[in-house]
């Protein structure tokens, strides 16, 4: 599978939740490290959608998204590395966690 196809497949859901999605640009090529980072965000999205808010997996994912840490696989570092706006991405993922739509989260 080409890296462009796998990039789009790996993060296909983000555009719906965060609005503009630079990862889906077919001209964009992510490095192996960036693909791993995108997979971390994809996992957070899937956990926030799949698990009830009272469960440890959901709580862990929410804590990571809300974190201001700046380690190599922190939420903010990942967003910056792969070209996503930190706050828009955070709002979109938390909207998923709260059962809202991304449009609601972006416009209050």
List the helices and strands and how they pair.
Layout lengths: L2 H8 L3 H5 L13 H19 L5 H11 L8 H8 L3 H12 L4 H6 L1
Helix pairs in contact: 3-4, 3-5, 3-6, 4-6
Low-confidence stretches are 1-12, 102-108
| Principal-axis shape | globular
The total beta strand count reads 0
Instruction: Summarize model confidence as the mean pLDDT.
Output: 76
Rg: 13 Å
Q: Provide the structure class.
A: mainly alpha
Main sheet summary: none
Oligomeric status of the shown chains?
single chain
CA(first)-CA(last) distance: 39 Å
Residue share in β-strands:
under 5%
Q: So how many helices?
A: 7
> Helix fraction?
55-70%
- List SSEs in N-to-C order: HHHHHHH
Q: Number of folding domains?
A: 1
Write up what this structure looks like.
- This protein has 108 residues and is mainly alpha-helical.
- It has one domain.
- It contains seven helices and no strands.
- The protein has helices at 3-10, 14-18, 32-50, 56-66, 75-82, 86-97, 102-107.
């Amino acid at each position: 599978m080409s890296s462009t196809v796998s990039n789009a497949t790996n993060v296909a859901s983000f555009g719906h939740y965060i609005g503009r999605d630079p990862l889906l640009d077919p001209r964009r090529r992510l490095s192996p490290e960036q693909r791993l980072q995108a997979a971390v965000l994809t996992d957070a999205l899937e956990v926030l959608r799949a698990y009830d808010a009272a469960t440890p997996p959901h709580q862990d994912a929410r804590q990571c998204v809300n974190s201001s840490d700046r380690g190599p696989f922190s939420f903010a570092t990942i967003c910056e590395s792969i070209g996503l706006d930190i706050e828009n991405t955070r709002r979109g993922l938390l909207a998923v966690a709260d059962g809202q739509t991304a449009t609601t989260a972006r416009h209050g």
